[in-house]
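Dear support,

I submitted the protein below through the web form. The confirmation email said the job was done, but the results page showed an empty box. After a refresh the structure appeared. I'm attaching both so you can tell me whether what I see now is the final result or a partial one.
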Amino acid sequence: MTGNSPAQSGLLPENGRFFSDTDNGTGKERNMDPEVKSTALKTSKREEEAYLARTLEVVHDNVENYGREVARMQANIDEMLEHYHDNDAEVYTILNNTITLHDHMKRALARNEKAMKKPYFGRIVFRDEALNKTESLYIGRGGISKDTTHWMVVDWRAPVANAYYENGLGKCSYPAPDSGHNALKRIKIDLKMKRTYEIEDGKLLDYYDSEVVTNDELLTKYLAKNKQAVLGEIIATIQKEQNDIIRKTPHHNVIVQGVAGSGKTTVAMHRISYILYNYQERFRPDDFYIVGSNRILLNYITGVLPDLDVYGIRQMTMEQLFVRLLYEDWDEKKYRIRETDKLGKTGCVRGTSQWYGELADYCRRLEWEVIPRETIYLNPRQFVEGLRDGKAGVYDETEGKPANPKDLVELMSRDAVERYIRQNPTISVQSKIDMLNERLLNKVKEEFLGKGVKYTESERKAITRAYRSRYGARVWKRSIYDIYRDFLTKQAAKGYEVEIPEKEFDVYDLAALAYIYKRIKETEVISEAHHVVIDEAQDFGMMAYCVLKYCIRECTYTIMGDVSQNIHFGYGLNDWEELKELLLPDPQDSFGVLKKSYRNTVEISEFATNILHHGRFSSYPVEPIIRHGDPVKVSEVTDTALLMKNAAKVCKDWQAKGFDTIAVVCRNREKAAAAARELEKYIPIVESDLEKAEFSSGIMVLPVEYTKGLEFDAVLILDPTREEYPVDDGHAKLLYVAATRALHELCVLHQGNLTGLIADPLPADAARKNGGRNLPEQAGQAPGVPPKDKLRKPASAGTVPRKRISIVRNTGLEEKQQANTGLAEGQQRNPARPSASSPEKRESGSISNASVRSLPDTGRKASAGIQNNGSTNGSLRPPYSIPKAPVRPAASKNTGRIDFGDMPATEKLRPAGHSRIDLAVRWVNKRPDGLYLQSRYGVLRLSPVGSAIVRVTFTKGMQLAEETNPNIAVRRIEKSWKYKEMGNVVEMTTDELCLQVDKATGAIRYLTRDKNLLLSERSKESRQIESGSGPVNRAWLFLDWPKGEALYGLGAGDKPGIKLRGTARYISHDGGNELPLLLSDNGYGILVATNKPVICCDISVYGSYLCAEDEQQLDYYFIGGKKQVTIMNAYAYLCGRL
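What the results page shows now:
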């Protein structure tokens, strides 16, 4: 058996634990497969081959059994269809059930047939701590069992399989759904082994034992395959950061920023499969919508989902989703959808959240105008039964005369109506009208009941007829299209440049119409999706998301995108801030970043990144998997005929290499159609009609916007001219998308008028940005968020040579090696780096160690020598002068010198990959030199030096180095301190400070004696020691700095200090005896006791931390003080200057 549902397979018992050898936690022995038990800790290839053979026997038996069942059911269906009659309800019910079961069996048969080639890809051996049992589980695309109790392979979606993707060896845990709750609980295990298998056509080729899922060697081997082969290995090669997103609870919203090639679409599809497997009670296939940017991408997703055991998911473009939300008001014979690439300038206006606000205000005013709000009275004298001119009836006795107030009965007050309208903003206008009419009739009935003898039956009927529609008719009469056109007319009168559509509507027209329908006309609330997955989310403006959130309310979202690939740059998303504010209001909602690119070779990645650097925007950094390939080829031809002939030759050569999927990318639809017609003269082309084209093997000719979300073995960018791709932010992103579609090879063919995004050298300021890498260039600026101030002009007007890309006519081995591996030792890597004597003006002030003694005690919370330059960051209002940090180039690896204030290279801003760091406190010991706290990872010592100074030392392992930095003059230990253990906290107190250590995480909270928080370490893995993982050892301290807190680095001698929020800088002093000092306006400072380079980073993409290079031990002094002059004096005291 294979591929059963979790309920059938037993992989989701109510505990969330997978039991292969006990009966659902009862402790009774269960029939654990003896083959599994005997191979629990065996590792030889012969034994692995034997287990594979036994597994394949089970799969083969399952194929035969399922095949027989499928044939038998088909025969039953044929027989029932032959004898079925419309009036035979019993046969109809049996037929329906049989067809459903037959479909299920056919899918199971198909899964088993695929499992014959590769039944599993991984294995874990662990000890379940609660059960005190050792488990050995093989993990595959689907579960495989002999029967309901003997499992050979566990489904990758089962909770226990998460240990394979997430954890390193040792004690750890995996999350499992908590029965009856929307939360996850952790199952504790001790992971003994993790193994990945390379199996092809039922043969074991090799296997790897590793701390991480698929080591670099295996991952690179998979990625080197062609596109179709790579798809088959996706489940086996899911990485930890991808797995974290896949397995997040579907009960909360998730936004994911993923660089090109990070697997966003793949992660989204696997997430759907995971949710359907583990949350069947809440989510069914028809509860999902997948929203993509174009039909080709959606068809590609349709083809892949069945391989993940997902069927029946509804997929649509954003335009189609809004059409769906128009229900009966959309007439496809009368109206048409306008393509997004034809939006023009009006999209820049109509795609924003501001436009949504304008539309909401318009509808609010319309509601106020349409619904009567005056107080409604009943005058009984207007409804009197009697005779008039000999005719019986109900007549108005007032004869138009003013009513006597004493005769009036108040039914609905103006205040009540207005209050109801205001208190129900999510209810449509028509629903409010219906509800107000219903309330009014109830008031009338109350009047009848209160004075039952007063009104005759005829009078009651007359009164009911008169009041039943006082607030409006039961059906909305006015067309929503007329309302929208009226809105646009009013917007045009305000000065907005808009077109008023008649029959053709683009995505933002449709969004507005869907909002108007929901806000004005809707009376019956139709349940739509429970979970919406949006791929290539950056292509849609905030208008679309605001409308979606309003129209589909009982729903959660998985949003995948890359703001660096926003091809609709006028109205798409250039950053995530507004969307996060809209969709992530709950603390359980999450924002994730996928930084690693698994798609491109290093050569393609560098070529594409250089294109981005022609833009004036910051982007999220890309970490390519180190997989080298051929250089990017840029070739020039003389005329169009030769261009097409050469393009055909390039594609033929690629096919000869075994590349299955090839894309020829053009600027727009017209160019793609023309190129396809010409290329067909030389080579076969896959369907070129964009309304019929399907993603498949062969050569596709596509406009660049239709390649979004897709990837190909090889890509040819055809004649990218300066006119089609001018050098600006939007077109840089557009060409970047084209370049990053290629898995293995990329070629550019042009006719001499090559776009400056490729041909021109990089601007000087782009080359200086972190040594030519993509790091936010302004302090406090998130990637993709445009700076509020004007862009700073470069120090010099020149340009620097960009890294050479191999061009067909002049490629040399020496040049290629230089481009790929860097310059020779001793050469200057960045010629734009200013020298120490550069005339470039310093934007800095005067905080330095020399000023310690002369600082006046102003009695204010002043920064010693720091001026805010008008900023209101924190409460600093000092009378001194120091400004923002000077913008410096990245520190050169080759000069050997790192100056205070230099920007670190990007590769230094993140720690190396590592297994799980367990900092949980195992024991606590008070000694004469401080308080020792031991964890599995290392030992932490807290040594009070004074009442407001604590030395914090941490090292990996069991033994601290005893030496103290020679620049520290103080060796004393404060006597009056104490500690206590309170539940999950170890607390140390001095006369002025209180340090609390969380036993579960090892993180420290630094507080005043009065328990006012000064600083917190990051709650998860707050410290890390790197050793042997790179050219230098590094010690990391991860901190949690709240918004609004100001941080400064202390300069040395005559060097000015620098601001540290939102940036990454070296705060150490090369070649001197000065120790680094971080100064906060929140009442503390941190002196790092090292003469080695120290980085202070506060960039959201990388984290907030201090990092000491070439150190195997963290050693710093935490200094508390209400006034910064106090902290400065304490610094001087520790360094022997007072």
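Response: this is the final, complete result; the empty box was a page-load delay. DSSP finds 28 helices and 45 strands in the chain.
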